[in-house]
Amino acid sequence: MDERKGFGTNFGFLMAAVGSAVGLGNIWGFPYKMGANGGFAYLAAYLVLAAVCGFVVLLAELALGRKTGAGAVKAYRLVSKKLKWVGWLGVASAFLILSFYCALGGYCLKYLVLNLGNVLHSGFGTNGMSGGEVFNAFVGNMGESTLYGMIFVAITMLIVMGGISDGIERVCSVGMPVLFILLVISIIRAVTLPGAVDGLKYMFIPGWAVANGVIEEAPSIFSVISAAGGQMFFSLSIGMAIMITYGSYLDKKENLEKNALVIVVMDTLIAILAGLCVIPARFALDPDGPLGGPGLLFITMQNVFDRMGPIGPIFGLLFYLLVIFAAISSSISLLEAVVVHFVDDARDRGLGDKRKKYTLIIAVLVAALCVLVCVDGLGSNHIAPADLLHLTVKGWNDCWLDFFDMLSEGVMMPLGGLLLVLMLGFETGTDLIRDECEATPDHRMRIYTFFKICVRVLTPIVMLIVLYGQIRAFFW
Ligand code: PFF
């Protein structure tokens, strides 16, 4: 009989879960949103939302997974009558996110190679082109960007084929500490560049970005809250199948509240640290470059390394390696969240261990969508939904990546999170979460009253704001 094998150690679990949470969003989303939405004021809003919503949903997902010992699809089926299907919503968002995440992961691989070329003074470096020129040439080259995207899908697939302890846990237990060390080295370089202090002011001082013309007008309190809420949700990898899946592989002896808290704290800390690296570097060496999104990562940061002198390509190499660790530890969690259902189902039906087979099938399907995202080249190759359907609606149809992002991050993820808390608050009750937390020997869930109030009142309100804010951002 094949056993369902979980994480070998709590450290391995934490590295995998933190690895899932820490991704591209921490590097290109959080820092510039913090600056554009009021610095410390945004951070304060983010921390409150992370406590009453992020932590609560994360803990509920981990507990639900560990209680049922199953991925999201089966977990919802086992506990709910009315919301049996919500697990599929999470799986579908993971699948869609994976398709564009792998394309972006492929871009990161390309930039690693470019900077290696620069280190070696070889022909496959940037060859004197600016960050913008390099980027446009790359996204416009369908064959090359697809090749890199496919390599990224293949790496993700091979790790997930290795299973939880021998694949995901092993990679994250090495990759996450290395990421942390690379980040600290990059921060030291960035904050000691002349002019870096403006980056720190942008990130932390409320109103500085508006007063200095970096952004046009001060955001309303509602946009600050909804920007922080949307970012927090995507960043913690919640509202979908992942944390339920990882929770299902966790041993009963591990303390769930402590783990959930560590994941939230580490994710936020690494987002702030990533900001201390990219934002000061941008203000010091490319003050007109994009401050966020793919433009920050692939145009501004490349300009930064090109302008850093002879040491620049080495920092470029270290930086893109760090970004690749962040992206891979997230992409493997996304793939695992989809694969787990089929693997468990086959095992339940007595068919044995079919992990390799299902991982391959799902990776091929992901690859098909990823090809579309790569060939589209962020809309530069004229096959975006807007080109094909002649729609003149908001920006989400300007490229396939934005379209998939709108469906997953914009609608399905926040909806999944909302339905989870509604299920716990008004259908199943919250006792099942408490019982699972207290399944850890000699442990009492001391925050149960806080948890209950959040699930019944605060979290649904925050989730509604996040959902509304996301829909508004994508459709208005
Ligand atoms: N949390 C990752 C990031 O911040 O980039 C991305 C992500 C991974 C989102 C997994 C959602 C997810 F399920």
Shape: globular
Please identify the structural class as seen in this structure. Answer: mainly alpha
CATH topology descriptor: Hydantoin permease
Main beta sheet: strand number and arrangement?
A: none
- Which residues sit in consecutive blocks of at least 5 with pLDDT less than 50? none
Helicity, as a percent range: over 70%
DSSP strand (E) fraction?
Answer: under 5%
Please tally the β strands and state the result.
Answer: 0
Order of helices and strands: HHHHHHHHHHHHHHHHHHHH
Task: Look at the structure and give the CATH class.
Answer: Mainly Alpha
Rg is 22 Å
The number of helical elements comes to 20
Mean pLDDT: 94
CATH architecture: Orthogonal Bundle
Give an overview in words:
The protein has 20 helices and no strands. It has 476 residues and is mainly α. 56% of the residues are buried. The chain is 76% helix and 0% strand. It has a single domain (10-475), classed as Orthogonal Bundle (Hydantoin permease), CATH 1.10.4160. The longest helix has 37 residues, at 312-348. The structure holds 4-fluoro-L-phenylalanine. 4-fluoro-L-phenylalanine binds next to α1, α2, α5, α11 and α15.
